[in-house]
Amino acid sequence: MMVPQRVSLLTLGAIDLPVLRAFYKSLGWEETDFSSDQYSVFKTAGVLLSLFPIAELAKDAGIELPTSPETFRAVTFAINVEKPEQVDSTIEEIRKAGGKILREPSDAFWGGRTAYFADPENNLWEVAWNPSSIFDEHGAMIAF
Fold it and tell me: What is the pLDDT along the chain (144 residues), one digit of tens a residue?
C-alpha cells in the first residue's frame, strides 16, 4: 500500500477567525459553500485553504498549541506567480488588504523573484516567481 502523494486541504488554526477570514476575503479570495462563521474554506489552485478556531483544532488533534498571534509556527505557504512583475503587484494588493510585508520584492540568488508577508495572525507567506515553474490549466503549480 502507498500513501496518496497529494495535499488537498490545509487548515490554519485561527485565533480570531472573523479577522483572519476578513483578511483572506479582502485579497479577493473566493470561499466555498462550506464556509460559515465557525469554519471558512477558500478555493485555491489545487488545494483548499481552511480556517478553523485554533482551540478546536488543538482539541480535535489532542494536543496543546501556542495561541499567541506572534508565534511563528515554522511553516510558510507560497503563492507562485507566472511572471516576475506579478510578485510586485501581488505584494501591493496584499499591502492594501492590510498584510504585513516582511520582505519587499527582490531578485533571488536562484534566479527568481520573491517577497514575504504575514497575515493578521503571523502566518507567513512567500510570493515567488520561479523561471522554471510549470502551471496546469487551473493555475496549480505542477513542477519547478
Answer: 888 888 899 999 999 999 999 999 999 999 999 999 999 999 999 899 999 999 899 999 999 877 677 777 778 999 999 999 999 999 999 999 999 999 999 999 999 999 999 999 999 999 999 999 999 999 999 998
Please state whether beta strands 141-143 and 134-135 pair in parallel, antiparallel, or not at all (unpaired): antiparallel
What's the chain's Rg over C-alpha atoms?
16
Is residue 115 within 8 A of residue 103, CB to CB? The reply is yes
Let me know: does 112 contact 128? Beta carbons within 8 Å: yes
Beta bridge partners of 7: none
Distances, alpha carbon 13 to alpha carbons 30, 69, 120, in Å: 19, 10, 12
What is this structure's pTM?
Answer: 0.89
